[in-house]
Write a structure and sequence with these properties.
Oligomer: single chain
Number of helices: 7
Number of strands: 14
Distance between the termini: 22 Å
CATH architecture: 4-Layer Sandwich
Strand order of the largest sheet: 4-3-12-11-10-9
Radius of gyration: 20 Å
CATH topology: L-amino peptidase D-ALA esterase/amidase
Order of helices and strands: EEEHEEHEHEEEEHEHEHEEH
Helix content: 10-25%
CATH superfamily: L-amino peptidase D-ALA esterase/amidase
CATH class: Alpha Beta
Shape: globular
Strand content: 25-35%
Largest sheet: 6 strands, mixed
């Protein structure tokens, strides 16, 4: 359950209620915090990091997984989505970081793959690094590009089933609804045919106006608009979110595109409106089937009939909604450049609002 024991939707949650409930998926962080006080571009303060999602414990290049993506609003600078959309497979781990560190993260991820695949660029083709980003410059010296190759390698090496949420890794400097945001995750069990599938979601939340914030259908942001003190100045419409959907359901790349689009429903339920300055991107992948690299045999893929996907769609929307809420509920108050502060969402006030609206 989330920290406030919120009940989001009707689907059963996974054991850990994270994306790692999809067997084989692991998540690692590298968190960078250094300095305080006035911003000195290129020097600090530093409030940023890296988060890595590894689809399965094998060699992802040699055993690719089916994938697809959906861009709700394209004010963003991702790397690797074009090939995912074209070929329908994921062949590297996913790396999340800040906007101006995409190049460094991609270079590090390429090196990570080269170290594990000596055939790349010699007897076979190149590799498609997948790096997604949000802008953490409200708290972080983003111009300093403080993320280095060893930080990306550390996040990849630290990937495991149990991982932190909130202001960690790529989420260290992120904001959501003008509170502290960052990394959040959730999972749902989806009955499909005579079996059950797991759907897990991880988000990097960095979006939203305070007054738009919704929890369990209740517009709590309107009640919290002046918290922690009256006269708070709204900070505009900018912000982004990255949503990663993993499942062990037998789905084709086309079907994963359909699943990815349902994450937008969960985003909307929290008050995300995909404003002009937002980069809202969904990447969905399935671990159920592996595509062997350079195989000369016909792929025999299994796929759930489309008319039986409703439970997967519902699970995706619910897990996305709760993952976003968890990104706030797990985040700790964080200060940053120019003594700016992003506060942890006030749980007592939030609980009182929710209880009052349900009476």
């Amino acid at each position: 359950m989330s920290p406030l024991n919120l009940q989001i939707g009707s689907c059963k949650k996974g054991d850990s209620n994270t994306i790692a409930d999809v067997k084989g998926v692991s998540v690692g962080h590298c968190t960078l915090i250094q300095g305080e006080g006035p911003l000195i571009p290129g020097k600090g303060p530093v409030r940023t990091g890296v988060t890595a999602i590894i689809p399965h414990p094998g060699n992802v290049y040699q055993e690719k997984v089916l994938a697809n993506c959906h861009v709700i609003n394209g004010y963003c600078k991702p790397m690797g989505l074009i090939q995912v959309r074209e070929l329908g497979v994921l062949e590297t781990p996913l790396v999340l970081t800040n906007t101006l560190s995409v190049g460094t993260a991609a270079d590090a991820l390429i090196q990570y793959m080269l170290d594990r695949n000596p055939d790349i660029g010699v007897t076979t083709g190149s590799v498609n690094p997948l790096v997604l980003e949000c802008n953490d410059s409200y708290l972080n010296d983003i111009r300093g590009r403080h993320v280095r190759t060893d930080h990306v390698m550390s996040a990849l090496a630290n990937a495991h089933h149990d991982f932190e949420q909130g202001a960690v890794g790529a989420g260290t400097g992120m904001s959501a609804f003008e509170f502290k945001g960052g990394i959040g995750s959730s999972s749902r069990v989806a009955p499909v045919m005579d079996d059950t599938c797991m759907v897990g979601v991880l988000v990097l939340s960095n979006f939203g106006r305070r007054e738009d914030f919704i929890v369990s259908g209740i517009p709590v942001g309107k009640e919290l608009v002046d918290w922690p003190e009256p006269g708070r100045t709204p900070e505009g419409e900018k912000g982004s979110i990255i949503m990663i959907v993993a499942t062990d359901c037998h789905l084709t790349s086309r079907q994963l595109g359909r699943v990815a689009r349902r994450a937008g429903i969960g985003l909307a339920r929290t008050g995300g409106n995909s404003y002009h300055g937002s980069g809202d991107v969904v990447l969905a992948f399935s671990t159920a089937q592996k595509i062997l690299h350079d195989s000369d045999t016909i792929h025999e893929l299994k796929a759930v009939p489309d008319h039986l996907l409703n439970q997967v769609f519902t699970a995706t929307a619910e897990a996305t909604e709760e993952a976003i809420l968890n990104s706030l509920l797990h985040a700790k108050t964080t200060d940053g450049r120019d003594n700016r502060v992003r506060y942890h969402i006030p749980e007592e006030e939030l609980d009182a609002i929710l209880r009052g609206c349900r009476l």
